[in-house]
Amino acid sequence: MDSPDKSVDSLIRKLVGFIDRNALYYLIILFCINFLIKILYAGGMYYWLDETSSIFIAQKSIATIIRESFAVPNPPLYFILLKGWMSVFGISELSTRALSVIFSSATIFILYYFSRRFFNKEMAIYVSLIFTLAQVQLYFSHETRGYTIIVFMSALSFYFYLLTLTVPSVLNLIKYTITITLLLYIHPVPVILIIVQFICLLFYFKSNRKGSLYIIAGQFITAILFGAWVLKNRWVSEMQSWVPIPGPEQFKELLVTYLNTEFIYYFSAALLVFFTLLIIIRKFQKNSTFEDTRSFMLLLLWGLFPILIIFIISQYSSRWDPRYMLFATPGLYLLTAFIISKLPVNSLIRISLIVLFLLSSIINFNLKPVKGEDWPGAISFMKQHRDDSTLTLICADYQFMSFSYYYNKDIFRQIEQAPTTLKKENIYFTKGAGVLDQVGINRYNKILLILSHEVAADPEGTLFRTLSQAYPITYTAPYLMNVKAYLFDMNLHPADSLLFDFENDGPFNRLGESSGKAYSGAHVSRINKDTIYSKGLTCSISDLGNIYSHYFTISILSYSDSLSTNAELVCSYEKPDSIYYWNSTKIRFSDIPDH
User: Fold this and answer.
1) Which is higher by pLDDT, 89 or 574?
2) Where is average pLDDT lowest: 238-252, 307-321, 376-390?
3) What is the spatial distance between Cα 294 and Cα 387, in angstroms, rounded to a whole number?
4) Which of 26, 198, 534, 576 could bridge to 495 as Cys pair (CB 3.0-4.6 Å)?
5) What is the SS3 string spanning 337-402?
6) Which helix (DSSP H) or strand (DSSP E) does residue 571 occupy?
């Protein structure tokens, strides 16, 4: 009689065999699951700058898209694809992101058949499930950008790479060459993958000499085809970086992002160390197969080499952002699935490990990741407070694309004329305070300031500082995702002169008593009853690294000459260039407290 372990092992092998025999049905079901979970909230978040930029470019003629690509870091292919897609499905958030969702969902077909053909069927099932629950894949499928297409094409390039190596033919060479050429014409950074494929020829050349020569030929042809664009492109010599230089902690954070959770990060690292030691031990025992070793090296280089290279490059010119290395993620998933499928344990333990991996992903899976820029909220605030005497200033200057999309679709469709058109409505886009000398602000009674990406366009905060020093803020928009909006009244003046000190008189000196709590001091402000705004106490506190991770308790003692007075207390946390947080509350006055 078979033991329970053998019975379970046999059952698992039968299940794997059943899925493999019905692979097409399995993948169609998994594709539908991928598509549904990724499309569900794809239209629920507003566009951010790069997405409106994509639509802006895709509205142009194909000839213009190609010509203008020579001055930017992005080759033209994605925008040409998006142009065709938009001509059928329109320019809404849901319709344009659906293109990214489809490519992301279709990637499971490539990963499954790649694993099934060149590794093993158990690994094929594992990697298809890992990819389905990869949070970072869902996140970037919600963007009108080419990142999910790059992931798809990267996986396809490795499929044709191994196919050409193992079955060298002119047809396979053509498939490989076309795939890597198209990949580079979507974005140039995946050239690192082609370098990885060239390095891996060291493991394949001896046993696959003809196929290796075909790969070299394909890469040479691609170098010529893509070189035509590179030689005309001017962005490399002019590129600037806005991304902070990463350290070891950021390296780990990136891998955690790609692998879903910190638990999976440590889990995968432990598997990697264990399997590496296993290969070394078997090598000394002459018990390992060369096939497993080179497969391991191929996937290891695919998953980690691009990240390591960009980490090194980023020490000089930072490009450290998850989107720029997303093409390495299939390698990470394949590596994890390969290691689990090759562990020298029974099927039940391997299934248990993959279930543990998937459960950790499910627990932390978020169908609706937060992203985008809340321009509709900013525009609503603007329309609520704007009149003919209002000047609207928007920083950064290049945000005219996102603003126009949500403000007026007709203006957005003629986007190159948008800044000029909007000036007629007293709406100006600027990099900083220099615009104040150009627009003739004396003609206006109010200034409405909208900030987004101002850290890049106006890093010194000149615009906000200049306005806030000259005019009081009468209204601040409620919290908006990646956008801030303020209304300045030019007919009012900050009441700084009303600040005075009761350090030696009255009940307010009790604020300065020694305590375990921090107090602002014994300063008070008398509110001017003739103005709707009076600036009160300003006090300094220690600089906080992340305002959103702290709570403040503010104690205020106040009194009024009249118990019928209506007042509102506004507290804000500010820096010279911006307001990070503000809140207000109505005040109900009572009798003056006893001494």
Assistant:
1) 89
2) 238-252
3) 69
4) 534
5) HHHHHHCCCCHHHHHHHHHHHHHHHHHCCCCCCCCCCCHHHHHHHHHHHCCCCEEEEEECHHHHHH
6) strand 567-575
Residues 154 and 326: their CA atoms lie apart, in Å, by 10
Q: 516-534 burial, b if ≥16 CB within 10 A, otherwise e?
A: eeeeeebbbbebeeebebb
CB atoms under 10 Å from CB of 548, counted, come to: 7
Distance CA(397)–CA(403), nearest Å, equals: 10
Residue count of the chain, please give it.
595
Q: Which two tokens stand for residue 377?
A: 């909220």
Nearest to 425 by CA among 399, 442, 404, 401: 404
Q: Which of 6, 1, 115, 18 is nearest to 346 (CA)?
A: 6
Residue 434 tokens read as 């220099």
Annotate 462-529 with DSSP letters as a single string. HHHHHHHHHS-EEEEPPPBTTBEEEEEETT----GGGEEE-TTSSGGGGGGS--SS----SEEE---T
The answer on pLDDT for 323 being more than 80 is yes
The distance between the two most distant Cα atoms of the chain, rounded to a whole number of Å, is 96
Q: HEC states along 232-277?
A: HCCHHHHCCCCCCCCCHHHHHHHHHHHHCCHHHHHHHHHHHHHHHH
Q: Say yes or no to pLDDT of 572 above 80.
A: no
The token pair at 370 is 């937060």
pLDDT band for 456, please (50, 70, 90 cuts). confident
For tokens 């379970």, the residue is 8
Q: Which residue has the tokens 């998953």?
A: 303
Span 362-366, average pLDDT? 92
pLDDT tens-digit map of 20-79 = 899 999 999 999 999 999 999 999 899 999 999 999 999 999 999 999 999 888 899 999
Tokens of 515: 């305590």
Reduced to 3 states (helix: H, G, I; strand: E, B; else coil), residue 86 is: helix
Instruction: List Cβ<8 Å contacts ≥24 apart for 21-30.
Output: 23/112, 23/113, 23/116, 23/124, 26/125, 26/128, 27/108, 27/109, 27/112, 27/128, 30/108, 30/128, 30/129, 30/132
The model's pTM: 0.81
- Report the candidate in 171, 545, 127 with the shortest Cα–Cα distance to residue 336: 127
State yes or no: pLDDT of 491 exceeds 90.
no
Residues pairing with 574 in the sheet:
579
Which of 101-105, 329-333, 390-394, 504-508 shows the lowest mean pLDDT across its residues?
504-508
